[in-house]
């Protein structure tokens, strides 16, 4: 009987350790996500939390695959994952927060032969979108 109780306690201890490790990993991931969001806000002056409805309203997901946006699975233009790590925006601009905002607002003014159309998005909304894209 004592052996059975030891096995049960041992199994419960292993489960408890697994739960604690999972909780710690989740906490570290959440902290990392918050850090990325804070950096994106500071870089762009936008709020990534406000971007999803803007991205949907302007139809960005019709052309681009955008992680974190339901239904944004377009295959016409490049996927927008890990945009902050890229060197260029649209193949023509150095990747900086201000250049990304300029590109979102008026890609044709920067590259007249770009397939990306002028969407009509205003700078304030473009800053929120840029912040969101820099968090992924």
Describe the structure.
The chain has 136 residues and is mainly α. It has one domain (2-135): Cytochrome Bc1 Complex, Chain D, domain 2 (Orthogonal Bundle). It is 56% helix and 3% strand. The protein has five helices and two strands; from the N terminus they run H-H-E-E-H-H-H. It has helices at 2-44, 51-57, 97-105, 107-110, 123-135, and strands at residues 88-89, 93-94. A two-stranded antiparallel sheet has the order 1-2. A hairpin with a 3-residue loop joins strand 1 and strand 2 (93-94). The longest helix is centred in the first third of the chain and has 43 residues, at 2-44. It is globular and about 40 Å long.
């Amino acid at each position: 009987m004592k052996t059975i109780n030891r096995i049960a306690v041992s199994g419960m201890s292993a489960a408890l350790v697994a739960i604690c490790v999972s909780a710690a990993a989740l906490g570290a991931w959440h902290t990392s996500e918050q850090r990325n969001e804070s950096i994106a806000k500071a870089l762009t002056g936008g709020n990534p939390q406000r971007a999803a409805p803007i991205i949907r309203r302007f139809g960005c997901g019709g052309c681009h695959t955008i992680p974190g946006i339901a239904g944004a699975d377009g295959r016409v233009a490049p996927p927008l994952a890990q945009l902050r790590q890229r060197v260029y925006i649209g193949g023509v601009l150095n990747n900086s927060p201000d250049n990304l905002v300029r590109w979102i607002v008026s890609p044709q003014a920067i590259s007249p032969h770009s397939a990306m159309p002028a969407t009509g998005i205003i700078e304030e909304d473009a800053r929120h979108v840029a912040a969101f894209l820099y968090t992924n």
